[in-house]
Amino acid sequence: MTGERILVVEDNEKNMKLFRDVLSATGYRTLEATTGGEAVEMATEHAPDLVLMDIQMPDIDGVEALRRLRADARTSSLRVLAVTAQAMQGDREHFLAAGFDGYLSKPVNVQELLGTVRRYCDGEAG
Amino acid sequence: MSATRAQKRRGEAAAERRRPLSPGDYRLVRAVGRLPARVHTKLLIAFVGTAVLLVAVGALGLRVLAQSNDRVGELGPLQQRAAAYGKLQSDIASVRNLLPENLPRDDDFYLVWPGAVPVPLTGGARIAVDQAVANQVKRIAPATRPDRLGFVPPEEDESVLGEIREESSRLSSLMTQLINDPNDSRRAQAMAQAADLNQLASELANTTTAKASALIADNARAYESSRSLYVGVAVGAIGLALVLGFLLSWSVVGPIQRIDPRLAAIAGGDFSGHVDVENRDELGALAANVNRTNDELRRLYTELEAASRHKSEFLASMSHELRTPLNAIIGFSQVLREGMFGPVNEKQSEYLDDIVSSGNHLLSLINDVLDLSKVEAGQVELEVGPFSLREALERGVVMVREQATEEGVQVELSAGPEVDVIDGDERRIKQVIFNLLSNAVKFTPTGGEIDVSAIRVNGEVRVSVADTGPGIAPDDHERVFEEFQQTDAGLEQREGTGLGLALSKRLVELHGGRIWLESELGQGSTFVFTLPAGQASS
Lengths: 126, 538
Fold this sequence. Notes:
heterodimer; A: alpha/beta; Rossmann fold; five-stranded parallel beta sheet; 5 helices; globular; B: alpha+beta; five-stranded mixed beta sheet; two-stranded antiparallel ribbon
């Protein structure tokens, strides 16, 4: 465990708790944002190693937040995964096309979540 | 008219212009269409009008014939009179010619003997000739009577004939005196009298002949003008009938030509336009109804679209809202189950497993409901392309093999190269295959067997999944393809959403195929589905 910082963007309190606890227990440091706007601020300020981005949020949605991150030179190269309950046919392709580095549909399998996070932090972030 | 309405009208006018101009668009034809009468009435008027014209032409023809006949009737007696008067005149002329000492050179005598030298008549010969002339003169008056003429002369002729009779009786008495006492002065007197008589007869004959000639000329002229009139009226009538027919037929055909493409467009789902028919008859009513139908359909279509959109949005929201809490339920259960925050005892572990599997069941239920709703709403568009059915079946078998092996069930696959390339939506076909396979594994007891096969028969691809499970009574064969209808065996399993076969049925039918079940209780079940074999493999 190298203690990478992961920004979890999630407006549902219980899901936030799940992701935070699982990631913390696995050795990651977590940052939390509950709105798209907050997510952009925190990502800009802390430059996390990975962002887990919810899509449907009260202010700006995950796609718009991603667009703002990509538009800013400081955050344009952040790795951002979409973690969303929007899991109808075609959604995965839609979000990957929008510029997300990966896609996880809710409900997530905890092992799959950890595996994916590990891959992006350890392997590919190298 | 609002701006948008005006724009729409212009748009329609533009569409109208793009249509090739047909006779139905002529102003006069449209005017006929605008006449406020039923098509039936218009047709009746046109046909009756044409009939009246025909009758008029016929009547005119008859009249011309009758006039001509009348003139011919007049000509006959006139010519008869001319002939009779000619004869009279020639008799009188011969009297005049026989009176002089010498026969005048123009007497008929010289026509018979052209070389004869005129010889003065003297003595007995003179008297004999005069006697003959007197007899001839006596016959003139009776010859002017109707019984000898063979007709009753008209009044103007009768007065001349009367004069002839008087003159002839005078000549007759002169002749008597001449015969009794021949001398030159009496002869001269008789000759003058004969010349007067001849003059009268000539006039009568000439006048009558002239009248006959005039009548003939008149006839010819009258015939000419009658013929021109008749031909003119006939041509006019035919022209009028043709114009009437043209106007009327196009006032009917024109609107139909305009209505037809609009109906075709409506049938094709285009409700954007109105048909422009200004007829104030049945066709106008028809066009108005087509337009009303168009508007009503457009309204319904818009409503349906909105309803369908709402449904899709509702389904998407439902999916999202159900998945969000499921994330926490399944996630926390998995975390606990894996002992991430401390060990759990066996019972707790079992319960956590139950929570996870129930959560996953709920998830598949959501997915199936969404799929089914989409298929029912016609929102599933197949992505048809060539793919290998054999590979799809192999993958399906691989996916269920682990579970099958765990339960001691053998899975056999036989798919030849003839099903290597078929047309269809690969993802959806795989969904159907997986559904049938997982059902088979679920219901086949330990030691059982599942046979999967794919063949090409009669232009279609046939896939069958046969198991050695409990089988399904024939009465239930239809029911298993209905939503939430599970057999008792299915209900005992507590797995499955009850939607898998309903969804499979719809997906197969979307492909134009069929799905059915061959089974008896206790004999195992064979689920078969077919797909139209689009692309024939080599």
